[in-house]
Structures are given as structure tokens and as C-alpha cells.
Sequence to fold (1005 residues):
Amino acid sequence: MSNPTKKKSIFKTPYLFLVPAIFFYLFFWFIPVLMSFIDSITAIGGGISLINFRNMFADPLFLQAFRNTAIFAFISLILQFVVALLLALLINRNFRGAKIFLFIMLIPMAIPPSAVGILWNTGLVQSGWINSILESTGIHHLLQTMGIVDGTIIWKQATNLQAVFLIILVDSWSVLPSVMIIILAGLQNFNKEFSEAALVFGANKFQSVKDIVIPIIKPTLISALILRLIAGLQVWLISVMIFGFRNVPFLLERVVFFTDRLRDDPSAYKIAVSYSMFVVAFVGIVALLFVKLTSRKDWRAASE
Amino acid sequence: MNKHIRKVLFYLLIVLISSIVIIPMTYLVNISFSSQLEVNDFPKPLLPHLGHDIKVEWDEGHSWYVVSRKSFSGEYKELNYLSDFDRVETYFRTYLNVVRTSEQYEADFLVARETGVPVFVHYNKTIFINYTKFFSIFDGAGQALVNSITAALLTIVLSMSIGGCVGYALARTSIKGKNAIGLGVLIVRMFPAISIAVPMAVLLIRFGMYDSMLGLAVIYSIPNIGLTAWITKSIFLSVDKEYEEASLVFGATKAQTFRKITLPLVFPAFAASSMFAFITAWNDTAISLLLTNENQTLALLLYKNMGGSASLHYATSGAIMLIIPALIFTFLTKDYINRMWG
Amino acid sequence: MAYLKLENLTKIFGKNGLAVDNFNLEIEKEEFVCFLGPSGCGKSTTLRMIAGLESVTSGEILLDGVSIIKDEPKDRHISMIFQSYAVWPHMSVYENVAYALRLRKMSKAEIDATVKEAASITQITEYLNRYPNKLSGGQRQRVAVARAIAIKPKLFLMDEPLSNLDAKLRVAMRTDLKRIHQDLHTTSIFVTHDQSEALSLADRIVVMNKGVIEQVGTPNEIYHDSETMFVAKFIGSPPSNFFKVLVSKSDNNVTVKHPAFAYIVKGPIADTLSKKYLNKEVILSVRPENFVVDPNGIIEVKCLIVEPQGSHLVINVNIGNEEAKVVTNILDIKTKDTIKLNFNQNIAFFDAETEHRIR
Fold:
């Protein structure tokens, strides 16, 4: 693809193109990262120590934050993967109005976090529109007679695990489009004749998706999933917007909470930065495991 | 017959799924049109009320007008007791979003006092009034809007120029490590700005960029440069080298070729990826929360005012204004997004 | 009793996309039929309707006496070879061929025997453990064929399977396909836009244009006895020459007149012409090889371009104001030579309005 004889003539200039980017990342990303790391292993008085991490583990909300983050990330991942895949397969059928349907499905992705917060706040308050829907469709009455609920549902008083699931649903509403669109792109680059052949040779629609489509678009699926996994482990804003700080803790929520506090309490910063590094390590390990797990017996690798 | 039933069921499913997106949005729009009073209505209506049904009676004993409003259930609920038309005018404007003059109210209601018979009227709301009120109710909203636009434009300039260079270099030359970009993007994502916010703030302070739109643009560009580089790399790759070579053969210089041949071909996708940069800046809340003080972006302003349930309807109208650019962008680029990811 | 019967098969896409219009055809068992036509003529759509990959707007499909129109593709006892071969890249050649057999819940031993049998027929036994991306286009094509014959279907459907191969390979594969058909005797439908492919492979050819059947016949019939101008135009390489001529009668001779020549028509066709087309314009169709280089010829032309083809020459000439091509076995004609031409009796006449053959 690239012309070998051209290599010599512009040998010096290509790296010139990279210089601004390299400098940019060095200054504005790498140095803060380095500083964060150093701060995390430096005690307040000075000297290298792991005391900050000890303090982090001592935070009464640490365990909860860790557990909530893990549950949230993995369950969201599975839920969003399945739903996004189904939606993408649906849209790929190219029925009448598919383009409009696609646009509608993309709308949640376009909504900024603050607006999302407002949307769900107006929904989840006692007199909000979620309860309004349940009320006017009679579902609330149904749930009451079935004994599942007792009086008006006060969403914001959800207990920890219920709250996490609520956040999973709310977050999925906003995030599904971005997963769906990556899978959709993979499907549209997919040669239809592969699945048609499967249908001719004995597969029903489900088998053709399982045996043929998914294995072939695996790279696309993996890139969608890994982005989602990383982002899922970094959840915090949606929880804070609905429930406020501390009520439903997540790892990154702890980081922001303590960072916000540093004007009043300098030691809060150390805890924040320890949490930061912990999250990075957690994300890194999970991401690595994920990649290892999904690239075994890859026919593409095997044939290279 | 079977075929038709299946078709109907299919489209029913589509409508059902669509409503999961559309219904919350409808409620959001409704609330943005709500008057102060309607904020506390329960249940909230799905379709916006464009007006109010009002009943006015004269209470001789207290010497005031009893103003009632028809509720969801059809009954008239008493709202307020107002003794003169100036008070009526203020009340209707502030709590019901109805804008009329005192004289008009007098013309409508005086007859209730004179005849003792209640007067029934229907007033239309000035529905967009919340949107204009937004800028007066929330301190600094106008400036925040300007700030958001500034930050977004700066982000575009930074991301496209730096990222574009990288993308061009990777596409057109034989630098090694082209796949490293994907890995690089991933690694940068593992360190979200929030987690390295403090040293970033320190850095920005040192460069004099703390609490400035330029500082924000710099931070927004961090993930965007990688993304832009990747997108522009695939765009430049898709521009057939032979177009450029033909141009050179026919006598154009490299610069002319770039300007007249390459640029027009890559422009549409370029535009789309710069809009990505715009949206990142426009939508962000978290980073501006930590890295600005007084110079807020619109998204941040909204975030800070989310709490008060009394002003929720104004916040909602602000939210809608915030959503519109992103929505337009999504609509324009929905076909593009496939190509870029592919 | 026809093995495959297509009755009034119609396909309309959306509101205005009439792709196939009342397609009627009966195919006998073990027949090798070609659907031939230009892009967009509906041949692939018809094939896909038979396969069940495209829904039918109206009409009926009967295979071996049973209606299959409501069946899923997998239940129709058919096999298909796709234009892109559609050999699954994530499975080895063995697994590609075995996939359908696994789905039919055959025993491991049976699957193994069947796969090896199909592999030996298509000569891919040595690639069984390889992955498709390590195979050339031609090898992948043979995998597609092996996969198709392994399930021993009632009907083979082939959708332009040779179009993606280079010219030499295409001709070689053509022969292979014909050999397999002769060995296995499976009823086959082969879709192509290449008329030489159709002529060499088919027992019968169905020539299609704009969703409609122009003619159904053996290669000979299609070539020498074209029913419509479209067929005459489409078949044959180089294509047939067409001349607008005026039918006239002088004494007892029926003559067709052209600015560059006047030809006396003989035989029963002369009667038809004089009875129905006197003083009217008709189209004279002359295949390049229907010209005879004859010193007493009625047309004198200058050879503009001479293309030697080894065994014969293709000569571009001007007859009147029109370009025409002549094919002759006389090899010593050169550019700028002047030659005289006659017609042999294989010429044909077509109605100028309906474009149908005048007999």
C-alpha cells in the first residue's frame, strides 16, 4: 500500500507532524499522571510510603464503593451488550423507517450529563413523571394490589443494591446508543452472503447469528465492549446527580468527593489520589483479563 | 394474513422501543413549558398543556377574587385569592406563565363581581417564557452560554490541528506503530481527567490557564486528539493516493494538491469529527466542575442548579437548550458515524 | 412431470420496483438451466426467490410436486453457491463443509465420510485443515462447491459463481462445474451475465430482460433462432449487426433495401415479408459470421480495423453510415483493403416495432 521509494524523500518530515501531539500529551497528560502517581505514594509529611492507600482502605465507604463499581460495570456490560446487539440486528434489517428509528435511538447519546441529571431527577422525584406514568396507566394500582409496592414509590430512598440497579437502568438509557452504533457499523461492513449461506445450509436465524455473524464481527464487538467496560468502571456522575455524594458510593465518586474537599482538608487529596490509582490499577487488570479471555483461539491470529 | 399480522406486530415493537426514548424526552419538554404551578402537578401530563381553564368568582365577604384552575381530574381547585387586578396580573405571569395586562383581566373578571356569576376563561400560556426567564433567573447564564461556545470552538481548533497532523502523517507516510494509536486512545481513557484533576489544575495554574476556556479546551482536547488522529487517518487512507498523484503529474505543487484535491475530499468527514470535538466540550460537566471557578460553561451552570425543585422547570428549559446542538449534530452525522467507526 | 415449476412468479420491491414480472418456467430433473441477462434483469432475484432468500410477491414454486414457497431456505432441499462464495472465514475448510451436516445431526463418522467425499470430488482434500484466508479465489470457490454438494440437495442454485475469477480460471472452472453436473446429475440453475458461459454450460438458457423472459431454449436455439432482437443482440460475441431495411417488391422478387445494398430475399420468409411488411421497415440481423467474403458480393466495404483472433479475423467496416463487424476465416485481409460481402442464409428479420422475430 505505501510506496517504499517515497520513504526516503519524506523521512524527516513525518515525525515533525507528530511533534505537537507528543508535546501536548507529554505536558497535559503524562505529567499530571506522573504527579498523581507520585502524590499517591508520598505521605503528607514527605517520604515514600503506602499510608495513603491504607487510609483509603480505611474509608468506611471503600468496600461499598468497590462492590458497587464492580457490580455496576459487569452487569451493565452484559445488559448493554445483549440489548445493543439486538437493536443493531433489528436496525440492520433496513425496514421502512429504519433511519428514523436509528435517529431516535441515538438521541439519548446526544444529551449532556447535566440534562440527563435533570431528566431523571424530574422523573424520579415523588411527583415526577415516572410515577405519573405508573399512575395514569394504572400500573401503580396493579403493583399495589399485587403487594409489590406500598403507597407512592419514593425512588430516591432506594436501598444500596436497588439504587445500583436503578443507576444501571438509567445509565444504560444514555449509553446504549454508543454501543449500538459500534455494533451497527460492524454489521454494515458484514457481507450478508455469509449469513444467507448459513440460512441455506440449515441454520435458523438464531443459529446464523450465533455461529456466523458474531464470530465474524468479533473485533468490532470487542472494541465496543472494552470501551464500555472501562467507562463502566469509571461511573460516578449519574449516581451523584440522582442520589448525591456518599449515598451510593462508587470508586470514582470517592475520588471526586475527596477532591472537592481538598480546600478544607488537605489530607482528603491524598485519599482521592489513592482512589485514583486504585481505579487505574483495577481498570487495567480487568481490561487485560478481558483482552486475554477474548482473544484465545482467534482464527485471524491463527492464520497470521 | 399471517404476513400482515407479523408486520403489524413488528412495527408495534418498533414503536414500543422508540417510546422508551421519546416519552422521557416528551416529559422533559413538557416540564420546560410548565409554569411554576404546574411543576407540582401530579400526575404529570404527557402532552403539554398549552393553556389553563380558569374560574373566577367574587367573594363578597373577603372582598377578593377567588381564582380556581381546572385540574387533571376535571375539578376546579382553588389557587389564590387576589384583591386587585395588578395582583392578578403578577400572579398569572409568575405562576401560570400567562402574560396579559391588568386592564385585560379587569375586562374579563369585573363582570364576576358585578353579577355574582363565576367567569370561566381559557388562557393560553406563553410557552417559551421559561426559556427567556432562564437567563434572568440563573445568574450568569448568558455569559455561561458564551463560555460554552468559546470552549467548544477552541477545542475544535486544538483537536483538529494537532490530531489532523498526526492522522495525515500516519496515513500518508510509513511511520511505524500505526496500531499504537488504538492502544494509546485506550490508555488515555484509563486515566479520566477527573482522576488526575488536581495535578492538571496545578499545571493549568502554572500556565495561567486555570478557570479559563482555553484551559478547558486543552483538557477536552486530550481524548479528542487521539480520536481525531484515528478518524483522520482512516479518512486520508480512503482518499485514493492516485488522485493526489494525478494532480502532481499535471503540474500542481504539493500544497496546491492538498488544498484543491485532498481537502475537499476529506472535508465532510473532517467536519463530522470536528463536531465530535464540539460536543465533547459543549456537554462536559465534570471537568469544568473541577477546573473552573467563576467562568462556568452552560452545562456546569445547569448542573449546579439542578437541586432546587422550585426552579426545576427553568433548569429544564436550560437543559433543552443544551441538548439542541448535540441533537442537530447527531442528526447530521448519523450516516457518517458508521463509516468513521468502520 | 416438471421437477421444478415456477408459476407466475412476481417480485415487486417497495411500491414501484417491479423486478420480476410473471415468470413461468418448468425445469426437468437433472437439467442444467442458465438464467442469462444483463444487470438488473431480475435473474438473481428469481434465483433468490427459489432459494427462499427473497420473499415472493405473488406466484408459486413447486419442487418435486410440493410447494416450497412457505418454507425456510434450510427446509427446501436446496444448495447455493454465492457470488462471493461466502465461505465462512472463521472456520476451516473442513468445518465449512461439515457445518450443514452437523446441523442435520449426522453422526461424526457420517460427517467425516461425506466431507471427504465432497472434498475429493472438488479436489480440495489437501486444504481441509486450512482457513479460507490462506486460499486463493479459485480454491475458495471449490470449497463453496464442496459445501454445496455435501448435503446432496435436490436443486443446485448458483449465483454468478464464476464472475469474481480471472478469465483463465473462469474457463477452467466452467469445465469443472459441467463435469460435476454430469457426475452427480443434480438439477441446477446457474445465473450469469456472461453469454459465453451460458452457451457452454446450459442444457437450456432462459434469457431475461427487465424482469421478463425474452426466450427459453437450447444454446443453439438461442443463438441461431433468436426470438427477439434483445436475444439476438445479447448473445454472440462479437454481437449481431442490425440494419434497418425497407421491404419492396419488383417483378416477383422480394427485396430489402438499405442505403448500402439491396438484397433479394429467398424462401418462405420472403412470403411473410411481402404479405405483412410490404413497403415497411424491418430490421435485418446479420451475425458477423453470417457475412461471406465474396468477390461477387453485393456490398463493397473498406476494412477500417482488422483484429486477428488466431483462427479468424474480426473486421470493422462501415456499411452505409453504420459500423458493422465481419468475421471470416480468410486470414490475409489487411486494414484499408476493400472487400465485397454477401450474406449466408442464417440471417434473420425482426419486426421494427415489437422487436419480435419475423418467421
Observations:
- Residues 33 and 277 of chain A are 9 Å apart (CA to CA).
- The domain at 51-295 of chain A is CATH 1.10.3720.10 (MetI-like fold).
- The first helix of chain A runs from residue 6 to 9.
